[in-house]
Structure formats: structure tokens, C-alpha cells
Amino acid sequence: MIVTDVLAPRSGKPRAFVPTMGALHDGHRELMRVAREHVGLEGEVVVSVFVNPLQFGANEDFDQYPRTLEADRAACEAEGVNILYVPTVWTIYGESPSITVDPGPLGEELEGASRPGHFAGVLTVVGILLHQVAPDFALFGEKDYQQLELVRRMCRDLSFPVTVVGVPTVRESDGLARSSRNVYLSADDRRRAAAIPRALKAGSNATSVEQIRTAAIHELNAADLDIDYVEVRSNDLGHDVPEGEARLLLAVHAGSSRLIDNGPVHVGSDGSE
Ligand code: PAF
Predict the structure, then answer these.
(1) Which positions ≥6 away from 184 have C-beta within 8 Å?
(2) Cβ of residue 122 lying under 6 Å from some atom of ligand 1
């Protein structure tokens, strides 16, 4: 495995790319496995580790964000990654960048409402990384569903020559989504956080948008989690939710941690409102 902070020009081999901020866990390893499936043994899997300052708000956890490069390197080796790209801030942003990617109206909703500027930071770094790595496939977890949708839109609207692949969320045995930020949870917050997958399950058993929301909110309230939002959206995060498959998205605070998750729901013919 090549570990580098400057990428050589890519070879002609098929290339799949997994951008990360490190603190790699099973969710990232699943992205690497799916990446390998897309390019085969003769192709290249590239993983980047870069804690992107641009996507953290002033009161967020940029300084505390877990940095575990040696363990990350071992995880990449174990998954047969070909190139581990660990750029510096300078390699990504150069001297004084003044251009960022505007995520459009969706960037201000859901996560964007609580985290102003977050998605501009995400799309800017993802755009730069996609140009530098020049992959055929780029893999993102469904755990960050809004990020996945915005990356898809950016690649479509700005004609990035890459196929964006969404990968289902990897979960703990009690259903909590794997996340690098789970390490922040106290034992009590971790126990209460198990209500999140229960809320998604309860929502998936209901049929109208309001019943789906009510069922999910009931589970979260029962665990005394502080709700930021619980929303049902179309699969591409539109406000008009058609009958059929849709997405339940939620964000809660457990102690000092903010947790997000989402899952599929089915809106029945008895009405979307
Ligand atoms: O999902 C993440 O880890 C980050 O938002 C990403 C896509 C690596 C951009 O910094």
C-alpha cells in the first residue's frame, strides 16, 4: 500500500475512491470492500484521510475530532487498499482559496439548518478530492444521507466524470449506526442512543407521513433524547413525498453529542399527509 500526501498521476486502471476523515470503523471498511467490488482485483482502491476544517462550524469539534492515523493505516492495509492519501491542508486548499461550492437550497435544510456552511465545506473538499484522485467510482455511506444526495447533485450538475455509489449503513448489534463520533457518547447516552434505530423501525412500520413521524418521535421521547428534527422526505430529499418508498431522517442530541440517522419508509395509499 502506498501512503502519500501527494498523489502521482493516476494509472489507466479502474479506480474507486473512499473519502474519509479517518477514525476508520466498520462502516468505512464496508465502503472499501464495496469499492473493491467495483474495480476488481486489478483495479485501484484509494482512501483519503483528511479532517476538513472547512466543514466544521466555529463551535464544533474540529480540534477534538479523533485522529487515529496508525490504526487507519492498519485498517486500510487489512482491506487491501492500494493508496492511502493523507493530504495536508496546503495540498487541498493551497495558499488562500476564495472559491467554494454552493450546495443550493438543500444545503440549508435538515443538517444544514443546524450547521450553517457545513455542506459548502463538504462539497468543496469532495470536489477538490475528486479532481485530485480522478476516480471512476466514489463511495459514500448512506448514514450521511443528505451528504450523499448533495454529492450526487454536485457531480450531476457540475458534470464530474464519476459514478457516485451509496453504501447502506453499517450498524452495531443494537442497531446504532457506526460513526466516528460514537466515541464521544457516555455510557448513559450510548444506552439512550439505541432508541434511534428503534425510532427508524417504528417509522418503517407506519404508513402516512404524520404517523411515521409520530411513531419515531414517540421512541425518541421515551428515551429522553432531545430532538433536532424528524422528517419524512422523498428519496432524493424533496418536500413532496409521493406514495411508495421514502426516507425518514432524524437528528437528536444525546448529552453533548449530536447524532443523525435515517432509514427507508413506505408511504401508503392512505395519504402522505
Ligand atoms: O463523510 C465524511 O467523512 C466527510 O464529510 C467527507 C465526505 C470525507 C468530506 O470531508
Answers:
(1) 61, 64, 256, 257
(2) yes
